[in-house]
Amino acid sequence: MKTIGIIGGMSAASTRIYYQMLCDMTRDRLGGLHSPDLLIRSLDFAPIAAAQAAGDWPALGAQLNAEALRLQAAGAGVLLLATNTMHKLAPQMMAGVSIPLLHIADATAAAICAAGFARPGLMATAFTMEQDFYTARLRAAGLDPLIPDADDRAETHRIIYDELCRDVTRPESRAAYVSIAARLRDRGADCLILGCTEVGMLLGAHNSPLPVFDTVALHCAAALEAAL
Length: 228
Prior knowledge:
The chain is mainly alpha-helical. It has helices at 12-30, 45-54, 57-74, 90-93, 104-114, 126-130, 132-140, 150-162, 171-186, 215-227, and strands at residues 4-8, 38-42, 78-81, 120-123, 191-194, 212-214. It is 52% helix and 11% strand. Helix 5 (104-114) packs parallel to helix 7 (132-140).
């Protein structure tokens, strides 16, 4: 098994989910006492979130690049960036890095296409919903992504940063997410991308009005396949 290098901590809540999923998937796949071979670099999210809000993306790109090179030097054979939003910086992150990055949007798009859907609703941070670094990759795969309206985008983003990234889950926020997903369905979405790695803390197959594609689960499955 190749060593999977993970750049995480963005947020710590989602990185914990990555670790648990990779462990569960490896045990299910290989049985017995097997667990994944991982290197995890968990970053302090507070200064990263501040730099995001300030638009200091070049500094964040340089930071991710240093971490990717660090994981490569430590023996990682494949890289995961355990956040959807920071894939905005994937090109900068991979400068001079020779091991592959498994892009979360590509894993998600492949699963949606394989399932026969075409117009996914996208619930994510405002950066991911409103900029094209993510939706452009979905369109390149032949999909027609649909994002929430302005008020719903703002509420989706607020809940992620003010609550989910802090490990807070509120019933009223769960209800708000269900309602936002329902409005995407009513506008023509045929499935739903849980497009921030924390959104699955509130939404899933049990309560979504649309079939869901959990980016964390899809990313972990792609990583395990690559590692094996």
